[in-house]
Amino acid sequence: MSTLRFNALQETLHRKPVFIEEKGRRSELFGKNVFNEPAMRQYMTKEAYQSVMDAVEFGTKIDRKIADQIAVSMKDWALSKGATHYTHWFQPLTGATAEKHDAFFETIEGGGAMERFDGGQLVQQEPDASSFPNGGIRNTFEARGYTAWDPTSPAFIYGTTLCIPTVFVAYTGEALDNKAPLLRALQAVDTAATAVCKYFDKNVSKVNATLGWEQEYFLIDTALASARPDLMMTGRTLLGHSPAKGQQLDDHYFGSIPTRVMSFMRDLEQECMLLGIPVKTRHNEVAPNQFELAPIFEEANLAVDHNSLLMDVMEKVSQRHQFKVLFHEKPFAGINGSGKHNNWSLATNTGVNLLSPGKTPMKNLQFLTFFVNTIKAVYDYEELIRASIASASNDHRLGANEAPPAIISVFIGSQLSSVLDELENVTKGKLSPQEKTDLKLNIVGKIPEILLDNTDRNRTSPFAFTGNKFELRAVGSWSNCAGPMTVLNTIIAKQLKEFKIEVDKLVETKSLKKDEAVFNVLREYIKASKKVRFEGDGYGEAWEKEAKKRGLSNNNTTPNALKAKVSDKAIKLYEEMKVMNKVEVEARHEIELEEYSKRIQIESRVLADVARNHVIPTAIQYQNTLIENVKGLKEIFGEEFKKFSKEQIDLIQKISNHIAEINSKIEQMTDERKKANKLVGQKNADAYCDKVTPYFEEIRYHCDKLELMVDDNLWPLTKYRELLFTR
Ligand code: ADP
Ligand code: MG
Known about the structure:
By secondary structure, the protein is α+β, with helices and mostly antiparallel strands.
């Protein structure tokens, strides 16, 4: 057998689970390495503590003198935990996280040294930002970028480094990262939702968006993965024949977690506990070697940070266990892909989940208000939501015959559908006393307090109501949740703002009572947004046709989907809600198009390399064996040899044909790449999408055929069955 593949298999088969010591009860470990409220109270003056709390709750500025105090407390705490360095931790537009470590250590004039950290170092830093993508922002303004402390996400220690969550902005104010727009969107939704809440409860003074993500991933042994240049370079397999046994038996999903994986999970969970990431569930997923991890939901900004941090920690912990973790949405053709469901809701500072039905009709009216406004917002901006989850890797999942489709629709279940249907028929204008009673008792009163167990679970819907929250299921496993969360919260903010204006107008001009006005506006929204509601099978072809009739978008490639990000409608929305200005929006669009093209370009190069340098030479080697065999048969049997070498000769021909096809397709693909490289922006991405990617399937087809023909012993790349089933 090919030595690399043989050694990889041997290594994998002989692995033992890494022994993981339990460091203590989870509840005791939780947040130990986080500068959280208890730690702050212990290390900070009352004044400093209060100023951080105010910044978190009301967004108030922290005075420079106080910042100095906070920095000293933070340093003392960090040193007590063995930290030696600090870093401003941020999320550049490439999706990963970035950090540059500085030591606390400083020398003192006249000899000696000390650990130092002051307010200036806490509040603002200037990383060498020239290598981070900025979509031309910095070039346009010739401005440098700086990172600024985000007090709403607590500092934490990872390894021996104090990590301070920060935003990354240009000196001209434009956001260069994912966090800054998210914070602005969360601010917008807080303002708009709080104003609407006051219709129902005057005590509400803040509304937080909540997020609970569910991270899916694959774990592949490092040795097996290392024998696959495509996996190592692109995060997915570009070729490989499906194994005889895939996931059709569903035995993995229900099966017990393999021992080595279990010890990885325990290790990971302990790390998460220390970092204050409240991970709660772990289980196998549908595909072999696919798993999921989900935390208890948190305030959205913190949850987004925690997901980015988690992905980072997973990479590190997996190495200790000789695994490569795959976040790609579709690492294996024909095998279930990975997503990252974003469970989202709104919660008041009085402890109410605004998407949870209540006990009384009034509470239910509040629930309906947020529920219907969400549906309306999604209807109005479905294309923008689709754009927010677009990436080269997620394209393999969306609309690719596997959930969820590239069409954004909303599933709410039969019970709530009938409530909305009834509400739709309430008279326009002032309600009669009878209608009022009907509404209270028959319609709103009918919403059960606990919907959780009653909501039918339609797994094919990209945006589903699941009892007390909406679940955006179309987010890719590799993506940063900040993108979709920024869009979702921005459009909800815009919608709620509009809603308030309309209700107030009815109250003033038509002298309607407040709840009557609310009903009237909601009824119009229910009618207006009906087209986005869909309860059927989202994967079927029938839905594609139906959605088209309804006027819903179906942008099934990234270059197409991204256009919605820079539409006039989107720019107007972002500017009105003060989430991003035109420059920031356009810069992001440019970066994402470029990122798309780069990924396709890399995949195309790697595919050509693997096909030419691994597959073809192996096929030729095997073909030579066959040729030798036929020659030998001829020596023995003379002209009668044909009788005994039919299969061999057939194979020799087929191999030649496949090789020829692979070669010519690679040449054509390379030509298309060259043409694409002469184009820029949208045209460049379009060319990569429409002209280059079609060759992937074709080249793969011939490579996979060869995999089936060539002697298993010669094949150099680890096979699907080995990647997915060797433990
Ligand atoms: P599943 O979708 O796998 O059935 P669950 O419905 O139990 O899982 O919950 C999925 C996720 O939803 C969990 O991470 C949970 O923390 C999160 N979640 C629950 N309530 C809320 C909420 N109000 N806001 C945001 N996320 C929530
Ligand atoms: Mg889910």
